[in-house]
Amino acid sequence: MLSQALTESHDARRQFPAGLLQPEGCARFGMDALLLAAFAARSLHALSPAGRAPVLELGCGVGAALLAVALLDENVRALGVEHSPELAQAAEENILRLGLADRLHVLCGTLPTRECLRRCRTWLTEQPSGKQGAALILANPPYWTRREGRTSPHALVETARRDTDATLDDFCQSAAALTRHKGYFCCIYDARMLPRLFEACARHHLGIRRLLPVHPRKGEPAGRILLEARKGTAHDLHMEEALYLHPSAQEKDARWTPEALQFCPFLGRQS
């Protein structure tokens, strides 16, 4: 039985992210979660192996980004925080399926409530090097406010898209409360709303250090921005060279550019 479980978890890791459990009616995870994980892993690799834990993901959904970070860095011990009990349960099952329950855990709670922050801090203090806070926090906050965008009939989709339960400011506040001094905060956000993200980071003393614009194709405007900030530091912005995800319309043989697959190899395995 143990041999069979190891084989199954090995196969699940090899196929990741294809095959992840996603409850009916939830917002399906996509490239945003995978790009965020690849970007956050690069921030972690700037630290010594011993300093790369613990990690938190705020709003982990079914665990796609959390799992991707753990697969990219075997030193990661991480906690995913998720408001929806249904999604939190799916994340736990996905963690078990990939055989990562020794390193990854899920907490069902609502940020930035005092009780949820307390439970996160309790978990942090139980981890090596965790008493001072998380080494890195990653998040894919909702891009729209209650008054923006189309309304979905599915409650789980609404929660993911829109700040019905937690606002962008809640995510930044929670990140500032839970990360260690000069710890990293990495997130992905709609490029059109970048000023909103800058303002939220500044309010909570998260100094913006690195930006990576993500474009669908050359000649098209950036759709997403990947941001790295550090707690308690001044803004010292480094703009990285743009990442182009898809080849030109004339190149029909490939879905992803070589640069995109080098940045995040999981993109090529999506079902």
Describe this structure in words.
- The protein is an alpha/beta fold and 271 residues long.
- The chain has one domain: 3-Layer(aba) Sandwich (Rossmann fold), CATH 3.40.50.
- It has 9 helices and 9 strands.
- The chain has helices at residues 2-15, 31-44, 64-72, 85-97, 114-125, 155-161, 168-178, 194-203, 258-263; strands spanning 55-58, 78-82, 104-108, 134-139, 179-190, 206-215, 224-231, 238-239, 243-244.
- Strands 1, 2, 3, 4, 5, 6, 7, 8 and 9 form a 9-stranded mixed β-sheet that branches.
- Helix 4 links the parallel strand 2 (78-82) and strand 3.
- Helix 2 runs parallel beside helix 3 (64-72).
- The two termini are 28 Å apart.
Walk me through the topology.
Elements: H1 2-15, H2 31-44, E1 55-58, H3 64-72, E2 78-82, H4 85-97, E3 104-108, H5 114-125, E4 134-139, H6 155-161, H7 168-178, E5 179-190, H8 194-203, E6 206-215, E7 224-231, E8 238-239, E9 243-244, H9 258-263
Parallel strand pairs: 1-2, 1-4, 2-3, 4-5, 6-8, 6-9
Antiparallel strand pairs: 5-7, 6-7
Helix pairs in contact: 2-3, 7-8
